[in-house]
Sequence to fold (421 residues):
Amino acid sequence: MFVNVIMPQMGESVAEGTIIRWLVHEGDRVEKEQPLVEISTDKIDTEVPSPASGIVKKIFYPGGKTLPVQEVIAQIESIEAKEGVVNAGGASGYSPLLETTKKIETVEATKEIEGAEEREKRYSPLVKKLAQEYEVNLEEIQGTGEGGRVTKKNIMDYVAAKSGAIAPPPVTEEKVFEKDVLIPLSPKRKITADKMIQSKRTAAHVTTVFEVDMTKIIKCREMNKDGMKREDIHLTYLPFITIATARTLKEHPIMNASWTEEGIVQKNNINIGIAVSLEDGLIVPVIKDADKKDLLQLAKDIQGIARRARAKKLKPEDVQEGTFTITNYGINGSLFGTPVILLPQVAILGVGTVVKRPVVVDDAIAIRPMMYLALSFDHRVMDGANADAFLRAIKERLEKWEVLAYDTKRSSSSTGYGGVW
Fold:
């Protein structure tokens, strides 16, 4: 039996993925669940495991190729059965061996047509404008840009050649970057750039900032961090902020929503994405039903997803169904920022670093550990008053936190939150 390895869908809004590199070669013997290939999307970098034990019969696409989800990227000749073909990794059903063989044979034949269609769709506005101005048929020009794209230089050289003029000598890449360093874009950086531009073009971004006195949170953390350390939990400020945000989202459902042309969709579940910094960008794994979890469980979950993200061990379900996002740039010392909304969500909370500074308390100057919370929200969905009320509620929860010693062997609901929630 031949088992098709497909490009998996790593999130509900993910339509394509990029092959980073193959970990095996054609003819290699592989075991079930053995990593075959590293892939990258705007949601996740991960390894795709082998769906069966057998021989790598065919690898259809090289590293660096971006493909739509459900596309067959490799085929395993399984040693577990003798005939038939099955798609693994998200596609459904069986297909006859002959039909699959036909597909394999036609892959190369259709590449040229697909490439031409892709180039046509990817002509830049400048290239199209120049082609119209000089009355040039773009299909007659051989593109030298990335992926065969037609560049401005290609058009000008073509026009010069047809008119008999001498084209200016080409500027070599070595001369252009004689003193500078060209850093190739990783697949994740390219996809992230596209998503960020899409978000800024789509959502009406506005940011509001509140200052929070973290005195009680720090006292509670100091009281409990050693006990949680014995449970292999590193207690940071983030679980406190996450639980405060989750409970506040229940009271302000407009923040836990998405925009559609038909109307605003309020989400039933509160699933909070936590931005995790990686070497080549960010990834946002999701804590499901965050409002139903206590401080201990959130601390465990946040620590767990961060470890799996950095080890590239996240599963597709780990990055799906997020309804709100928290990004903790304060870990790098930043006071505050204006984070970009992760579509189709309508808001994102930025967490700044905690810094001791003088503030006025009861008409006297005191030294307090202060933190800025910055909320970027979609002005199409809500007004500033809605956003300010939401952020003010989070601030009050954190500043009125009851300092308790939590029993790590029991749920925090048994010790209570002193009516804060």
